[in-house]
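Section 5.1 Outputs to date
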Amino acid sequence: MLSKDITDLKIGVLGGGQLGRMMIQSAINYNLNISILDPDQNAPCAHLVKHFTVGKLTDEEVVYKWGKGFDLITIEIENVSVAALKRLQGEGISVYPQPEIIELIQDKRKQKTFYKANRIPTADFVLTESADDVANYKEMLPAVNKLGTEGYDGRGVQMIRTMSDLDKAFDKPGLLEKLVDFDKELSVVVARNMKGEMECFPVVELSYHPEQNLVEFLFAPAQISEEAENKAYDLAKNVIQKLDMVGLLAVEMFLTNDGDVLVNEVAPRTHNSGHHTIEANHTSQFEQHLRAILNMPLGSTELITPAAMVNLLGEDGFTGNACYEGMEECMALKGVYVHLYGKKLTKPFRKMGHVTITDNSVEDLKSKARKVKETLKVKA
């Protein structure tokens, strides 16, 4: 339990990407003392904190030595050394989310097994050891083949629709997940502090890039029934309680055509599906994460206005210094907020920023979102 005044705490963040960048923006409001470790000397957070250290996040000794000087450590990416965090926690340093939860979520096989063991609804699945093993489960097709580890931002996920797709299967430990007949893909970001208090952000509806498995559009609130909405909230709370997790958890879900809600995957940190909360909600996901890990009262998650979010991805075929086309035209639109992530180099489908659009009219919201998507391009 943290005993110091929050402004006196030394807080370390593993990861210096765009999530850390937006977290820092919220931390400034509370005069929090934030330090960052990231392997990239030009990471988005590099010039935003007094203490930025270059180091490998998965190197146990690097993370352990760096972490010894902090009161509290948190993450903005899961691919970190859990062994180092466990050692630091054992020496009295607070680590949220807890290391064992990060370890569980690092491996999709363990994650899915956890859902099954705790009767958390999720798609049917089998664990697989190799590409040959995947071929033993033809009755599961059509299915999704996922790597157990190493998958991130849409990587490590492959559709196996028919037997002719079996040559695409991963030749590493993974899982084969029965394809869900879903109506919509949803996400709920839920926060939980050390007292066990919980708050959910309103359910959002997601639309994915057909090739890259990355979110292209997000709409808040989701256009779903009250019954489905309540099922989504209950499911998100159930997951974070069963994990006994402190912090922020993004729970991605399927709303099936039968009206059921199933967990797809979770992320124990701020998430792409919560970026709109900066403008659209009373409390942003980044502030809420800090409130949760500092054991502060959780903020109101109520929507101020309907919102959409468009990811700015590097255009296919362009690699090099980023150039943004269509910026002025988009910024001239009412309720359009551009967030660039400070990444100098673009490459195909790299997350370079996002745009939040707010409007009381859902139709106008969707129209503006499409306009932004068609107009604002990241090239080199």
